[in-house]
Task: inverse folding
C-alpha cells in the first residue's frame, strides 16, 4: 500500500491526473466496464484519490455515477451485480465523507465497518486489501459495526446547541436549512454534510422555515412573533415581517416565491407579499393556535392545522375559508400537501396520520402510529409515500397506495420535530430534540442488518486479563458477556433495577462486579452465569468500580460523594473514604492494591492509601468534571479524562501533572492504558476513539463511531480494543501497524 502511494506520487502530474481522473469516463464511454469496475473496487485507487490534493472525497463519490449513464447500462459488459456493489461502496463513501475530510487515514476503518456486512465478491475483495494497509497505525473493525449502506441512516448533521424544530430543503436537494431553539438557522451542504453558514437575528426559538423554489431565499418563523426573509446567497437577512401577536409556528411559501403563509399561536394565518415585505391579509377561523401550514403548488390554496383538532382549507384568491376537515381527536401538529394539490396528509397527537381528499373535503383513510404522538409529516413529489416523525424517536415511511407502513427508521435520541424529503424521493431529512438533523436513505434495498450491542447507552466495558472476554454494562439494566475471539455475545446478565454504570473483572476472569444507578453493586459468577450476591450501602448511584489484582477487594465510587471498599470474601463493606465534595465518577487501583485514584465532578483526582485508609494528595488541573481515570501497571502514572475535552497524564511520584493531551473536540468520557504503559486509549462525546503515544503525546490512530463513545477498554495484547457508545453499539477494534504485547 505504501509502495503504491509512493509509486503514484513519483509519476508526473499528468499521469496522476489521468490515472485518478480522466481515464474513468473513457473506460465507460469505450465500453471497457471491467476496467472501470476494477478501478472503483481497488482500495489503493480509493485511498490515492481521496488523498490527492486535486481530487478528494467528493470527486471519488462522483466517479461512481458514471455507471448510471444510459449507454453504460445497455452495454454487454454491464454487470448488475457489480453495479450494485459499486452503489453500496459509493453510499458507504458518502456516509463517511465528512470524516475523511478531517482524517483520511480512517478510509480503511470506515469502509470495513460498513462493508463487512455484505457477502458480495466485488465488495469482499476490497476490505481484504484494506486490512493490509500499513502506511501508519489504524483501528480495524473486527466485525461490522457501522451503519451499512442499506436503507436507513446516512449521516448526522451536528452543530445546533438546542432542539431542531424546523427543516427545509432546496429544490435541487443540495442544501438543507434548519431552525432551532438556539435562535438560529443553519444552512448545510447535503453533499458534504458540512455547515455552510449560520443565520442569526431571531431573539427566540426558530420554529419554522420554508425555502423558495429557486433556492435563493429562506423564510423563518419564530417565538419572537416575527418572520424573517434571508438571502441564501449572501447568508444575510433581507427584512423582517411583523404582525403576529404571538409565536409563529409554521410557514410555507408559494411556488413562485412571491407569497409566504404563516400560522401562529394567535390562532391566525397570515399571507405576506415577499416583494413588498408587507402583510397582504389575515385568515381567521381557528379557535386555537395554528401549528401547521401548507400551500398547493398552484398557489391558490392554503391548508392549516390547529390545536383545535381541525384543518382548514383556504382559498387564497377569495381570501376565504373553503371548508374544515374534522376527524382528529387531538391537536393537528403538521400538514403536507401532494404536488397535484389533490390530497393533504395531517399528523396529530392522537397517534395518527390522516389522508384527506381536497376535492371532496373528506377523509380518505387513517394511518395509525400506535407507538407515539406524531409531530411531523412530509410527502414525496410523486404523492406515493408519506414520511412521519414522532415523539417515539422514530420516522415511519408509509405507502399511500397500499395504505400501510413500509418501514421504520431509528437513530434519533429524542422527539422528531420536523421532516423534509428530497424532490427525487430518495432521501429524508429529520430534525430532532436531540439537537441533530439526520439524513436517511428511503430506497428500498432489501438488506436488513443487526448491529451488535445493547438496546441503549453503554456506560461501561471491561476486558478479562487473558483477553478472551469482554463485559459491558448499559442503561438497558443489563450486562453482556462477549467472546473476544469471535467476537460474539455469549450471554446476558440481568438483575439490576436501573442503569448499569460501571463494570470491573477479577484477574482470573471468573467474576464480574457491576455498579448501578439502583445504588448497589452486584457480584456475578461468569462460569455459572448467575448473580452471587449484592453489596448495599451507597445512598446514591454507583458510578465507578475497580477490583484489586488479587480479586479480594472491590472499590466503588458514588454519586453520594464517597468511595467504599468491599471485602469480596466476607461480602461486606470494609470502610468508606470521604473527601470529595461532589460525585465520584471514576476509580482505578494500582496493581499492588495499595493505592487507589478517584476522579470527581469537583474537577479533581484524589490518591488514597488503602492501607492507612487515608487520602494522600489531590491532583488539580482539570477545568471540568473528571469522568475517567486509568493507572499504569507500574503504578507511577495516572491518566484522566474530563469534560474539559482533555486528557491529563499525572506523575504519582512527584504528585504533579506531566502533560495534557488535546485533540478531542468534546468531553472525554473514557480512558484506558496499555499494560506496558506506553499508550492510552480515549473515548469522547465527539464520537471518536483515539490512541495516544504517551512518550510523544501524539495521536497515532483514530476511529469515528456513529454516536458518542462512552466507554473503552483494552486487552492485555495492547491492540484489541472494545468500546461502547450511546446508541448501544459495541465496537471491537484492532490497532494495526504496531506490535502486539503478547
Result:
Amino acid at each position: 500500500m505504501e509502495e503504491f502511494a509512493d509509486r503514484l506520487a513519483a509519476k508526473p502530474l499528468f499521469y496522476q491526473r489521468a490515472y485518478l481522473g480522466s481515464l474513468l469516463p473513457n473506460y465507460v464511454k469505450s465500453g471497457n466496464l471491467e476496467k472501470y469496475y476494477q478501478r472503483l473496487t481497488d482500495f489503493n485507487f480509493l485511498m490515492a484519490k481521496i488523498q490527492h490534493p486535486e481530487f478528494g472525497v467528493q470527486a471519488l463519490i462522483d466517479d461512481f455515477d458514471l455507471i448510471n449513464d444510459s449507454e453504460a447500462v445497455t452495454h454487454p459488459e454491464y454487470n448488475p451485480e457489480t453495479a450494485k456493489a459499486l452503489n453500496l461502496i459509493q453510499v458507504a463513501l458518502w456516509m463517511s465523507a465528512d470524516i475523511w475530510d478531517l482524517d483520511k487515514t480512517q478510509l480503511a476503518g470506515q469502509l470495513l465497518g460498513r462493508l463487512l456486512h455484505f457477502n458480495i465478491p466485488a465488495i469482499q475483495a476490497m476490505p481484504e486489501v484494506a486490512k493490509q494497509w500499513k502506511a501508519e497505525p489504524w483501528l480495524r473493525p473486527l466485525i461490522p459495526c457501522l451503519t451499512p449502506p442499506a436503507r436507513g441512516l446516512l449521516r448526522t448533521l451536528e452543530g445546533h446547541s438546542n432542539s431542531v424544530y424546523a427543516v427545509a430543503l432546496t429544490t435541487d436537494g443540495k442544501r438543507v436549512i434548519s431552525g432551532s431553539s438556539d435562535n438560529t438557522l443553519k444552512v448545510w451542504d447535503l453533499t458534504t454534510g458540512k455547515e455552510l453558514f449560520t443565520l442569526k437575528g431571531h431573539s427566540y426559538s426558530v420554529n419554522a422555515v420554508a425555502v423558495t423554489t429557486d433556492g435563493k431565499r429562506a423564510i423563518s418563523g419564530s417565538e419572537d412573533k416575527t418572520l424573517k426573509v434571508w438571502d441564501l446567497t449572501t447568508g444575510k437577512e433581507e427584512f423582517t415581517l411583523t404582525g403576529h401577536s404571538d409565536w409563529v409556528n409554521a410557514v410555507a411559501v408559494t411556488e413562485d416565491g412571491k407569497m409566504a403563509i404563516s400560522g401562529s399561536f394567535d390562532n391566525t394565518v397570515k399571507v405576506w407579499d415577499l416583494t413588498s415585505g408587507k402583510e397582504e391579509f389575515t385568515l381567521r377561523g381557528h379557535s386555537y393556535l395554528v401549528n401547521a401550514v401548507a400551500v398547493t403548488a398552484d398557489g391558490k390554496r392554503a391548508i392549516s392545522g390547529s390545536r383545535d383538532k381541525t384543518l382548514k382549507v383556504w382559498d387564497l384568491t377569495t381570501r376565504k375559508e373553503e371548508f374544515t376537515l374534522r376527524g382528529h381527536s387531538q391537536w393537528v401538529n403538521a400538514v403536507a400537501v401532494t404536488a397535484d394539490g389533490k390530497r393533504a396528509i395531517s399528523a396529530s397527537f392522537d397517534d395518527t396520520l390522516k389522508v384527506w381528499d381536497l376535492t371532496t373535503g373528506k377523509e380518505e383513510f387513517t394511518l395509525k402510529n400506535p407507538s407515539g404522538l406524531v409531530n411531523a409529516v412530509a410527502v414525496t413529489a410523486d404523492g406515493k409515500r408519506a414520511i412521519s416523525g414522532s415523539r417515539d424517536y422514530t420516522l415511519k415511511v408509509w405507502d399511500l397506495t397500499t395504505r400501510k407502513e413500509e418501514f421504520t427508521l431509528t437513530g434519533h435520541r429524542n422527539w422528531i420535530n420536523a421532516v423534509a424529503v428530497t424532490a427525487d424521493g430518495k432521501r429524508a431529512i429529520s430534525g430532532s430534540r436531540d439537537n441533530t438533523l439526520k439524513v436517511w436513505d428511503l430506497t428500498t434495498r432489501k438488506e436488513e442488518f443487526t448491529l451488535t450491542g445493547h438496546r441503549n447507552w453503554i456506560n461501561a466495558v471491561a476486558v478479562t486479563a487473558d483477553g478472551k472476554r469482554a463485559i459491558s454494562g448499559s442503561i438497558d439494566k443489563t450486562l453482556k458477556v462477549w467472546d473476544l475471539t469471535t467476537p460474539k455475545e455469549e450471554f446476558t446478565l440481568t438483575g439490576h433495577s436501573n442503569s448499569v454504570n460501571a463494570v470491573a473483572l477479577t484477574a482470573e476472569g471468573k467474576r464480574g462486579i457491576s455498579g448501578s444507578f439502583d445504588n448497589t453493586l452486584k457480584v456475578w459468577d461468569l462460569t455459572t452465569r448467575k448473580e452471587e450476591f449484592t453489596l448495599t450501602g451507597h445512598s446514591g448511584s454507583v458510578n465507578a468500580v475497580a477490583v484489586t489484582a488479587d480479586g479480594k477487594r472491590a472499590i466503588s465510587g458514588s454519586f453520594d460523594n464517597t468511595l467504599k471498599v468491599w471485602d469480596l470474601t466476607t461480602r461486606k463493606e470494609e470502610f468508606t473514604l470521604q473527601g470529595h465534595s461532589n460525585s465520584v465518577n471514576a476509580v482505578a487501583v494500582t496493581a499492588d492494591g495499595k493505592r487507589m485514584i478517584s476522579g470527581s465532578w469537583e474537577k479533581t483526582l484524589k490518591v488514597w492509601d488503602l492501607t492507612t485508609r487515608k487520602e494522600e494528595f489531590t491532583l488539580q488541573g482539570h477545568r471540568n468534571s473528571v469522568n475517567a481515570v486509568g493507572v499504569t501497571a507500574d503504578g507511577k502514572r495516572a491518566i484522566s479524562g474530563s469534560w474539559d475535552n482533555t486528557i491529563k497524564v499525572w506523575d504519582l511520584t512527584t504528585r504533579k501533572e506531566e502533560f495534557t493531551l488535546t485533540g478531542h473536540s468534546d468531553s472525554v468520557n473514557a480512558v484506558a492504558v496499555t499494560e506496558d504503559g506506553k499508550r492510552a486509549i480515549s473515548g469522547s462525546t465527539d464520537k471518536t476513539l483515539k490512541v495516544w503515544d504517551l512518550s510523544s503525546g501524539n495521536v497515532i490512530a483514530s476511529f469515528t463511531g456513529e454516536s458518542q463513545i462512552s466507554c473503552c477498554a483494552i486487552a492485555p495484547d495492547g491492540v484489541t480494543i472494545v468500546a461502547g457508545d450511546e446508541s448501544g453499539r459495541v465496537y471491537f477494534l484492532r490497532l494495526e501497524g504496531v506490535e502486539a504485547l503478547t
The first helix runs from residue 2 to 10. Residues 398 and 405 are 4 Å apart (CA to CA).
